[in-house]
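ok so i was messing around last nite and threw this chain in just to see what happens. nothing serious, just curious
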Amino acid sequence: MNVWWTVVVRTRIVRPPQSLSAIKASQVSLECGVERDATVAVAWRWSVGGADISSSSDSRMSVSSVDGSLTIRSVRNTDIGRYSCFVVSVAGNDSASADLEVIGNVFCYYVFLYSGLHFVCRERDPGL
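result:
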């Protein structure tokens, strides 16, 4: 009688999403890179504030089937929140979270300093 064992690498998030500030109407991507056994299928799921995100519910948001990253096009104030990535596979599950902040009314300009020309962006005072 022969017994065969199959050993697989545990699926885990190695490049978690990072909290960030996005300029209103810009595009952002949140990473959710995993280390896994090449023979194991992986599925990614994202949520914001505990509610599942699906491309059908908001066409501005999409999840890459290759690396699990979440892309949000034309960021809005309503996109502010805690985003969580969930990775599911037969070799283990993992999750990680990050916060998205949206900055509006931004203006950018160049400043010449002794060290050279610098590009600076600042949020406008909402009272202006």
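not much to say yet. The chain has one domain: 12-123.
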